[in-house]
Specification:
about 525 residues, alpha/beta, 2-enoyl-CoA Hydratase, Chain A, domain 1, 3 domains, 8-stranded mixed beta sheet, 21 helices, 17 strands, about 40% helix
Length: about 525
C-alpha cells in the first residue's frame, strides 16, 4: 500500500472513534461527538491534533482485541477568537470514554504544553470513569491529571465542560478547575452513583436529581454555568474566555469598541426605593454602570443573595461582586461567602480589577449557620479580599452594617477607593437594634415607651445611618450621586492602572478552608 494512502486511511479510521453505530447513538441522545465539539469550540480550521494514533497498551480481559486510535480522547490545540487554546475532548463512543493510562497521558501532554506556553486549557468531559480493566494504572492516570490541575491553578485559566457522565474520581479534575459548565439533561456529576447511594443510605434518587446540571447549579454550587445543549455550552466557553487573560502574567484583552446608553445615567437615579426596608435588584445598578450587554453572571442560580460575574468598563474586563437585596435582603451567609471568595480569588490571580457594590445588613444569624461554620466561611471572603492585589473599588449603595461592612472590601482590608451614595447607611447595626441597646435603661422608665423608642431610633439614624460620619473619618473617600458612579469608577480604574502591590514573602497563606 502507498504510504501516503496508508496515513490517510489511518487518519480516517481514528476520526470514526467507536464507529458509526456509536456515533449515531451519541447523536440520538442530543450530544455531539468529541471531534464535533472541538470543531465547534475552536476557530474554523485552527485545530491541530496531538496523539491521534495513540493506543492503549493493556492486554487484560481481552482489551488487546479492542484498540482504537486515539484511545477515547481527542487532544490538541487551536484558537478561540484568534487566541491560543489547548483542549481535550473525551470520546464516549470509545469504551465509554473511560480513562486509561494512555488516555490520561494524552491529557497530561496538552496540560503540560498549556503551562509551558501560558495558554488556557479547556476540558470537554464525557466519560464513564476509570477503565476498570486497567485497575490501579487508570487511577494513577487521574492522579497525574489532578496534580497538573493543582499546579496550573492561578497560572493559566482552566475550564471544564461536563457534556455527559462524570463520576467517581473523574469529578475532582473539574472541581480543581476555575469554572464548570454543565449541559442540561445529558450531563451529571457525582462521587458515588444512585445505585451505591441506595445500597449505603437506602435513598432512592435518579442521576439527574443526584448530580444533574440543575442540582449542581442550585444546591451544591459545583456548576457555574448551565447550557441547554452542547452547542450552547461551547458558545458560552468561547464568550467566557474573552474576559480572561491567557495567563497570570498578562492582562485580559480589551475590545476596542464598546457601547453605553446615556439613558442609563438617568435610570440609575430611580432604582433604590424610598423605603430603605424594601428590596431592589442590584443587577440594575450593575447594568447602569458597565458597558452595554457586557455582564456575564457566574453562579447565577446559587447563593442568590450575592451576585458575581464578569463585565467591561470602557472595554476593559472587570470582576463584579455585589450584595443582592432582592434575595434574603442581601445578607451574607455560608454559601454566598464561599461563592464570592472563590470568584474574588480567580480575578486576583488573573489581574482582573474588582468592582464591589455593597448593600449588606450583616451576616445571617441562627444555629444552622453557626454550627455549619459561618465564622470560617465568612472569613474566606474576608481573606480573599484582603489578599487581593488587583485594583479594587467599592460603592456602598445603602446598608453597610457590622462585620459584613468590613468584609465587603472595606478600605481597612485594602480597598483602593470607596464611594458611598447619599442613601448609604454605614454603622455597627441598624438604627432599631442600636437604639434598643443604647437607650434600653433610659426608655424603660418612660411613660410612652413606644414613642420614646421611635424618637431614639430616629436620633441614632440621623447620627449614623448616613455616609457622612464615615466620610468625615476617611473611611469612605467620597459621597457621590448615583449617576456619577460610572464616571467615578472609570476614573478610579484608570488611576489604578499601574498599581503595584506585593504580598509579604511566604510559601502561601493558610486560607480558612
Amino acid at each position: 500500500m502507498d504510504k501516503n494512502q496508508e496515513l490517510k486511511e489511518r487518519r480516517e479510521a481514528s476520526k470514526l472513534g467507536g464507529g458509526e453505530a456509536r456515533i449515531e447513538r451519541q447523536h440520538s441522545q442530543g450530544k455531539l461527538t468529541a471531534r464535533e465539539r472541538v470543531t465547534t469550540l475552536l476557530d474554523e480550521g485552527s485545530f491541530n491534533e496531538i496523539g491521534q494514533f495513540v493506543e492503549h497498551r493493556s492486554t487484560s480481559f481481552g482489551l488487546e482485541k479492542n484498540k482504537i486510535p486515539g484511545d477515547g480522547v481527542v487532544t490538541g490545540y487551536g484558537r478561540v477568537h484568534g487566541r491560543l487554546i489547548y483542549v481535550f475532548s473525551q470520546d464516549f463512543t470509545v469504551l465509554g470514554g473511560s480513562l486509561s493510562e494512555t488516555h490520561a497521558a494524552k491529557i497530561c501532554r496538552v496540560m503540560d504544553l498549556a503551562m509551558k506556553n501560558g495558554a488556557p486549557i479547556i476540558g470537554l468531559n464525557d466519560s464513564g470513569g476509570a477503565r476498570i480493566q486497567e485497575g490501579v494504572v487508570s487511577l494513577a492516570g487521574y492522579a497525574d491529571i489532578f496534580y497538573r490541575n493543582t499546579r496550573a491553578s492561578g497560572v493559566i485559566p482552566q475550564l471544564s465542560v461536563i457534556m455527559g457522565p462524570c463520576a467517581g474520581g473523574a469529578v475532582y479534575s473539574p472541581a480543581l478547575t476555575d469554572f464548570t459548565i454543565m449541559v442540561e439533561d445529558t450531563s451529571y456529576m457525582f462521587v458515588t452513583g444512585p445505585n451505591v447511594v441506595k445500597t449505603v443510605t437506602h435513598e432512592v434518587v435518579t442521576s439527574e436529581e443526584l448530580g444533574g446540571a440543575k442540582t449542581h447549579a442550585e444546591k451544591s454550587g459545583v456548576n457555574h454555568f448551565t447550557a441547554g445543549n452542547d452547542i450552547e455550552a461551547l458558545k458560552q466557553v468561547r464568550d467566557l474566555v474573552t474576559f480572561m487573560p491567557q495567563n497570570a502574567n498578562e492582562l485580559a484583552p480589551s475590545p476596542s469598541l464598546f457601547e453605553f446608553k446615556a439613558s442609563k445615567l438617568e435610570n440609575i437615579k430611580s432604582i433604590l426605593p424610598d423605603n430603605n426596608q424594601l428590596p431592589y435588584d442590584i443587577r440594575k445598578v450593575i447594568e447602569c454602570t458597565i458597558d452595554d450587554n457586557s455582564f456575564r453572571e457566574v453562579h447565577a442560580d446559587f447563593a442568590k443573595n450575592i451576585v458575581v460575574g464578569f463585565a467591561r468598563i470602557e472595554g476593559r474586563s472587570i470582576g463584579v461582586v455585589a450584595n443582592q437585596p432582592a434575595s434574603m435582603a442581601g445578607v451574607l451567609d455560608i454559601d454566598s461567602s464561599r461563592k464570592a471568595a472563590r470568584f474574588v480569588r480567580f480575578c486576583d490571580a488573573f489581574n482582573i480589577p474588582l468592582l464591589v457594590f455593597e448593600d449588606v445588613p450583616g451576616f445571617l444569624p441562627g444555629t444552622d449557620q453557626e454550627w455549619r461554620g459561618i465564622i470560617t466561611n465568612g472569613a474566606k471572603l474576608l481573606y480573599a479580599f484582603a489578599e487581593a492585589t488587583v485594583p479594587r473599588i467599592t460603592v456602598i449603595t445603602r446598608k453597610a452594617y457590622g462585620g459584613a461592612f468590613d468584609v465587603m472590601n472595606s478600605k481597612s482590608i485594602g480597598s483602593d477607593l470607596n464611594f458611598a451614595w447619599p442613601t448609604a447607611e454605614i454603622a455597627v447595626m441598624g438604627a432599631k437594634g442600636a437604639a434598643e441597646i443604647i437607650f434600653k435603661k433610659e426608655i424603660k422608665g418612660a411613660e410612652d415607651q413606644e414613642a420614646m423608642w421611635k424618637q431614639k431610633e430616629a436620633e441614632y439614624a440621623e447620627m449614623f445611618a448616613n455616609p457622612y460620619r464615615a466620610a468625615e473619618r476617611g473611611i469612605v473617600d467620597d459621597v457621590i450621586l448615583p449617576e456619577e458612579t460610572r464616571a467615578k469608577v472609570i476614573d478610579g480604574f484608570k488611576m489604578l492602572e499601574n498599581k503595584a502591590e506585593t504580598l509579604p514573602k511566604k510559601k502561601h497563606g493558610n486560607i480558612p478552608l
